[in-house]
Amino acid sequence: MSQDSIPDLSLTVPLAAEAIRQANTLVFACHVNPDGDALGSMIGLALALTPLQKKITLLSADGVPEMYKFLPGAELVQRGSDEAEFDLAIVLDSGDLSRVGASVLPVVERARKTIDIDHHVTANSFGDIRVLNSKAASTSEIVYALVLAMGLPIDKAIATCLFTGVITDTGSFRFQNVTPNTFHVAASLLEHGAPPAYISENVFENRSFAATKMLGATLSTLTSTANGRVIWAHASLEDFVALGATDEDTEGIVNYVRGVRDAEVGVFFREMPGGSVRISLRSRDTVNVAEIAAQFGGGGHKMAAGCSVARPLAEAEKLVIDAILAVLPAVS
């Protein structure tokens, strides 16, 4: 979807607000392997709607990773629901409806109406109402605007969730997606009680022993193209077993891979039980990694994306790296 075809937020935000007010039962969902923005925006919006006394179900196919269990309201998130039908489904930060996961997708599809809230704008955007803004650094920024538009108060718990989303998707304001509005939103959330040091410690400085060992094991597999423009690393099933680690223990490792000097694209592969490989991609702006991920059924945005490939680890590495090299701009 091109920027020109994105529905005007001044039109879609009021439509979303009215749909929320009219619904009695709502289900919220985010993407698989959720990060701070997916969970922060979802939980933050749910907490903000508390005064409206709605029945809200929060779904994450992969649950809440340990590092994000500090979020107020994290205990409300479920992996699935047996509810027959909801008045309204709100999908946040997913890019593509399928990215909510196989266990959650049928629940969302049973809802009478669907709202897509996202800063990932792709050809697979969906929903009866699409609240999309590719210029927002995080989905939490969009949720903040929606909450204000609805005239709902923001307390410390809501501010904590949304601020977590902002700093997660901006790498603590280090990424190129940061705009003046990002800082305006962050400042407002601080004024409403978000504790930046506490949030940052939990998100960036709270790695478990197994996760720290996994970081070392993964970085020992670093591989580079001859010119050093593409760097990748992997974690095998054997690594997970030997270190007693889980997939959530790999959170953030891809940023170390991309952080290698002169690397334009960083990729992290992790082998999952059942024969699939989860892949995280990061770019410094020369390659649109969302387009790479889309080739394999994934999604994301220009500089951060993810996908899964049902191939052996070595084959998955070759497929994805070849796809990147095919679009890597020539050095001038």
What would you say this structure looks like, in words?
It comes from Capsulimonas corticalis. GO terms for molecular function: nucleic acid binding. Residues 29-166 form the DDH domain. This is Phosphoesterase RecJ-like protein. InterPro entries: DDH_dom, DHH_sf, DHHA1_dom, Oligoribo/pAp-PDE_c-di-AMP_PDE. This protein is an alpha/beta fold and 332 residues long. It has two domains: 3-204, inorganic pyrophosphatase (n-terminal core), CATH 3.90.1640; 209-327, Diaminopimelate Epimerase, Chain A, domain 1. The model has no long low-confidence stretch (mean pLDDT 94). It contains twelve helices and twelve strands. The protein starts with 8 loop residues before the first helix and ends in a 5-residue tail after the last helix. Helix content is 38%, strand content 18%. Helix 4 runs antiparallel to helix 5 and helix 5 (156-170) packs across helix 7. The radius of gyration is 19 Å and the shape is globular. It has helices at 9-22, 36-48, 105-109, 139-149, 156-170, 180-191, 196-204, 209-219, 237-243, 253-258, 289-295, 313-327, and strands at 25-30, 55-59, 77-78, 88-92, 113-118, 129-132, 223-224, 230-235, 265-271, 277-283, 299-301, 304-309. It has a six-stranded parallel beta sheet. The chain has a six-stranded mixed beta sheet with strand order 7-8-9-10-12-11, sandwiched between helices. The longest helix is centred in the middle third of the chain and has 15 residues, at 156-170.
